[in-house]
Amino acid sequence: APDDDSRGALLRWSAAKGDYVDGSMLFGPPLVGFGLQFALVQHLEFAAAFSALALGIIYMGLARLLSGGRALLLAETCLALGVIFASLAIPLGLDARWTAAAWAVEGAGIFWLGLRQQRPLARAFGLLLQVGSALAFLSELRIGETSLLDGAPLGASLLGAALLFSFDQLRKAPVEHAAQWERRGLPVLASVGLGFLYLLAPLLLWTQGTAISWALAGLATLLVGLRIGSRTFLFTAFAVQLLGGALFLLRLQAGADSGAVFSAGWSGLLTTSLIGLALIGGMLLAARDTMVRSDVRLLRGLSVVLLAGLVLINLAVLFVLPWETASGVWAASGLLIIWLSLYLQQRVSFVFGLLLQVIGGASFLIAVPDLLGPLTSEGLRPLGHSGFWTPMVLGLAALVGAWRLQRRPHAPVFEALSLQRLSDVLLVWGAGWWTLALVSEVLRFAPSTLQGTWLLAVAAVSVAIWVVLALRLQWASLGLLCTLLMPAAGVVLLGAWGSRYHPAANFAWLAWAAVFAVHFVSLRRLALVIPEKALGAAHVLGCWLLIGVLALELRYGLLLLSEEYNAWRWLGWAILPSLYLVLAAAPRSWPWPVSAYPREYRLYAALPLAVLMLGWFWLANIFSDGTAEPLPYVPLLNPLDIGLLFALLGVYLWSRSAAPQRGPRAELVAQAVSGVSLFAFFTALVMRTAHHWGGVPFHLDALLESMLVQAGLSIVWTLIALSLMIGGYLRHRREVWLIGAALIAVVVAKLFFVELSNRGGLARIVSFIGVGGLLLVVGYFAPLPPKRPEPVVETEGVAS
């Protein structure tokens, strides 16, 4: 015997003493003998199993007798043969299900002994036996009739327990007692062992029970994994929960008559919610663990788990609600998810919360196609149906989410998402749904004659509420949204527009008063919150809309005077804008808001009005004959002529006050435009007078062929030229005098080429005599003024 009596030394000494003859004598008799025995007794039931078991007992007994001393190698070999024959007895006597269970337990025991005795071969055999048992068990699984799978639950439980026992023993064993390859197999042992325990659910239950069991089992696995610090347990826990959710969703069926999307009803709601809550609860528990927070892969997995849990919880409502109602629930859920994500610093779930808002809105629009057509109120109560509350909840959820996002500070994980811009987008999204809910309700239930009034009232109340919130919360973006009241009121005005539109009808005067009161009060209160440019634009838009509404009301009042398209209908458009131009040009100081925003009201708001009035002046001057029944036509005293002169006065006064700010060229252009427009007015005045007093048809061809019109034009043009030349002489404006002289030349040419061609007739005589007399007056009172002297530039001499 060796000097060292340790087990390793004895084994090495024994191996050196043996040869192939010893191996043949040791392994030959049992193998050959058992083969002969099997051939003899195979026709008897259980005989082969008992033969293997007896042979195993014999060799185990030999191992016990030979234990210790120099026969250590021989004892261990006999023990291995005994175990092999005892293991072989199991499949010979039992079916595959019980074979798997027995092998699993036996393998676990052998593996434990191998660890205790530090025998690698024994541990390898124990693991191999467990692998064989797992394969044997899986080969017998079938689709069940009373459960999802048909198999032996006891076998699955014994397999799982055996594998987890081996995992636990190997995990606790000292490092020197196990090889490296065994350590690497720890995740496999844990996941496979847990997998066989999870198989108990489909072996005993149907789909719904299996999904619930897996959700709870995953949560229990998570708790154990956190306690023992095993990442494999955590991943397996989340995997089985996700698998349960997927299994349940794959077996869903569409709802029939219940109105819900899916047919499982409240049981489906509870099941899906339970799975989702289990996922979220597990994620929250795991996120508190130090090991998890230090592992990037686990954190990413937790994000996926949280997302899956949120998806399942939001899908749960489809088991009891239709699409259009579920949309509102999703919006509220999205708001809650956004809030929790900001608290937990979970960017993936935060993005999902935002997407849930969009998905909720899109599903509502798809599920309610009536929004694109006429809305009906049949079978509905005002403010008591999902068609109102769903978009309202969508709007409120988005508005609250926008308020939450604009609050600072935020975690660094959200810096790349630009939360302020997302807040603005959510604000617009929420305001859109708010508007859709209220507008659709008005269009459903309000009579057509009162819809405009109600819409204006809704706009005023909504903006009033937003103004209060913007001031209380110091929310600049919401304050900026309040400036859209005027565009919204303008849209209502365009929608109610008609040939006989009456802005004050059907209590609309009260609604318009509320709109403008809210508008100006909001601009006054939000002056420190809204950006200066947006505030100025809101003032300009409010000014335009106010003048437009008052002008439309005045137009309607004048329209009642006559049904014909006459001067009264033309005047309705021009009086108030022209009056505004006159007031804007006045140098006096006006109260707020003009005093606070003079540039906006005196320039930006007045400029488009001046252009419109100039265009109106030319159109009315050309196309209106001046009929103003029941009043007779009196030149220059006719309502149309007074309106035209007043409009031109407003344009001229405003341009004279605004032109110096733009330079001398702008002032010259303004004077030229006013002069040409006034010349056109007197020309058309002659034609209108000839139409009413001379019976000339108000058509351009007839007017130009009339010698009465030509004579009147010659005299009037000469009077205009006389005024220009006298004014130029008195003011020493040589260029004005020359313009008058040019007009005189045109009149003289017209006398010879137009009037002279008409032989005879009083009009030609009056024309020649009148023009000639006026020319004498011009020559006497308005000679050509001298040129202005050039300014002399004084230079100082330089002393030499």
Structure at a glance:
The protein is mainly alpha-helical. The chain is 74% helix and 0% strand. The longest helix has 31 residues, at 664-694.
Gross morphology = rod-shaped
Strand order of the largest sheet: 1-2
Kindly state the mean pLDDT as a whole number? 79
Count of DSSP H/I helices: 33
Helix content percent band: over 70%
Low-confidence stretches: 792-800
Major sheet characteristics: 2 strands, antiparallel
Radius of gyration, in Å, reads 50 Å
Task: Note down, in words, how this protein is organized.
The protein is built from 33 helices and two strands. With 800 residues, the chain is mostly helical. The chain has a two-stranded antiparallel ribbon with strand order 1-2. Strand 1 (142-143) and strand 2 (149-150) form a beta hairpin. The chain is rod-shaped. It starts with 6 loop residues before the first helix and ends in a 19-residue tail after the last helix.
SSE diagram, text form:
Elements lengths: L6 H11 L2 H22 L5 H19 L6 H22 L2 H21 L3 H20 L2 E2 L5 E2 L2 H20 L7 H5 L1 H13 L1 H5 L2 H22 L2 H20 L14 H23 L2 H4 L2 H21 L6 H22 L2 H21 L18 H21 L12 H27 L5 H23 L2 H7 L2 H11 L12 H18 L6 H28 L7 H19 L12 H7 L1 H18 L15 H24 L1 H31 L5 H6 L1 H24 L3 H20 L8 H20 L19
Antiparallel strand pairs: 1-2
Helix pairs in contact: 2-3, 3-4, 5-6, 5-7, 6-7, 7-9, 9-12, 11-12, 11-13, 12-13, 12-15, 13-15, 15-17, 16-17, 16-18, 17-18, 18-19, 19-20, 20-21, 20-22, 20-23, 22-24, 23-24, 24-25, 25-27, 25-28, 27-28, 27-29, 28-29, 29-31, 31-32, 31-33, 32-33
